[in-house]
Design a protein that fits this description.
The chain is of the alpha+beta class. The protein contains three helices and ten strands, in the order E-E-H-E-H-E-E-E-E-H-E-E-E. The strands form three sheets. A four-stranded antiparallel beta sheet has the order 3-8-9-10. It has a four-stranded antiparallel beta sheet with strand order 6-5-4-7. A hairpin with a 6-residue loop joins strand 8 and strand 9. Helix 2 runs antiparallel to helix 3. The relative contact order is 0.19.
């Protein structure tokens, strides 16, 4: 353990066999993806996240994809909140008007987006129960992948 400025930090080495991270990530790659402006996505997640902060744990925002837009929504004590972000996802309007991506923690999403430094991010998903994968788009020399587990939405 380490003691700094009146706080104690304890470390523990976890022994065991862990799966190769490349295998885990490739197994959970989504079959759908869209590119979005990172700053706009961060602003939408933060704005809706502030409203759901008063709602019981876990803080969850809902993501729906519409034609060329990602919609983020949630409920709080003061009522519903929503925000949309332009994206390059196109929906087959003959069969559906939107796709439920699922629920996500606004804090985890904001944390991942804050560490990515490119203008655009690629957002991959499969279904509401599968992990979301975020990656920088262009201009990033280091390979950076963020995997965020979904949160089950109430029916």
């Amino acid at each position: 353990s380490l003691r700094i400025a009146g706080r104690e930090l304890t470390f523990r080495n976890v022994e065991g066999t862990f799966p190769d991270h490349e295998t885990v990530i490739s197994k959970h790659r989504g079959d759908k993806s869209t590119a979005m402006n990172r700053q706009s996505l961060l602003a939408a997640a933060t704005a809706v996240g502030k409203i759901v902060s008063k709602y019981p744990y876990p803080r969850t925002i809902r993501i729906d994809l519409e034609d060329l837009a990602a919609k983020f929504s949630g409920k709080g004590d003061d009522g519903p909140a929503s925000a949309s972000v332009a994206c390059d996802f196109e929906i087959d309007t003959g069969t559906e008007t939107s796709i439920l991506v699922g629920g996500i923690s606004p804090d985890y999403l904001a944390s991942a987006l804050s560490s990515i430094k490119t203008e655009k991010v690629q957002f991959e998903f499969r279904d509401p129960e599968s992990p979301y994968i975020l990656e920088p788009v262009e201009g990033h020399e280091i390979r950076e992948i963020h995997m965020i587990m979904p949160i089950r939405l109430d029916p």
